[in-house]
Amino acid sequence: MPKTYLTALLTSTALIVAAPAIAEEDWDSDGDGGYSSTEFNAGNSAAGMFKEWDSDGDGMLSEDEFNAGNFAKYDANGDGVIDGDERDDLDQDFEDEDDDEDDD
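Structure for EF hand, as requested:
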């Protein structure tokens, strides 16, 4: 899998997982119901997630950076463990995403 494709896939996945925390509806600046690459990039940049997760600043998310970013998002108390309540939050985010897909 080419590295640029993997980066795009991981970034998209990260945004889907983080959807409840990001006002993505604001990303659709032309109101057409979709995201152009310009809107996607602007929204991602505004969310700051990519830059925050790209710990080495190379403009790409490695698997380790992606995993660390996702883990940190749900490890609310920063103890290095996803406990029951934190797991509930993770499960709820995925459930919310499934509900959103069902609405389409």
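The chain has a mean pLDDT of 73.
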